[in-house]
Amino acid sequence: MIPIRLQWQRPRDGVEVYVDGGPEDQMPFRTRSDRTDSITYDISNLENPISLNLINCRQDQDFVRFVERFGLPRNASFPSTKQDSNLWEMAAIKEELEYIFELAALANSSEKALHANNIMKCVSLVPTFEFSAGKHHLAFQPTDLSGLMIMEAAVAFDVGAVLTRCDHCAKAYLTGPLTGRRSHSKYCSDRCRVAAMRARNKSEGREDL
User: Fold this and answer.
1) pTM of the predicted model, to two decimals?
2) Under a CB-based contact definition with an 8 Å cutoff, are residues 30 and 80 in contact?
3) Domain extent for 199
4) pLDDT in tens, 104-155
5) Pair 168, 148 in one domain
6) Residue 154 CB partners (closer than 8 Å, separation 6+)
7) Same domain, 45 and 134
8) 178 and 120 in one domain?
């Protein structure tokens, strides 16, 4: 697979949500400073895709933590006096990602491909040559973080990885090819597997071994 890689920026001093008098679900993010750190993301496997971190955001503060960790989805600059993103935009991208991941679980058909292609139209990939180990290598560069996340969902769609919900905590994770997890996996982590076992033992009146 040709590498898909993104050079991006994230706010060094974090972000905050501020009230500007608009609707609550459109409250914008504002950085605490104009300082940023450069970071490179690539799609080498589906064990811990960035897109799943966004899908697992449930509260407003979760979206803030996502931006602090990974950067804004559609804007690499962080002027502290300018509205950069808002909760509505973050939720809309999350919905798009869930839609593509859920398509992967459906039976293959031309209609399934058509639905996926409709979302893929918003992704731009720039072919670039990278130099390493004495050779030039072809790579694709998305224009922004949202494009990289949609490509993660597209790769999952292509290889047959399926979006799954943990039986214990309901956290979303992927199973199947490139994920490091078996397709019949029920728990997102060993911690949830052990917690679920203890809960079953307690409900059945058994002591933990």
Assistant:
1) 0.85
2) yes
3) 164-209
4) 878 888 988 898 888 888 889 999 998 888 999 999 999 999 999 999 999 9
5) no
6) 100, 116, 120, 123
7) yes
8) no
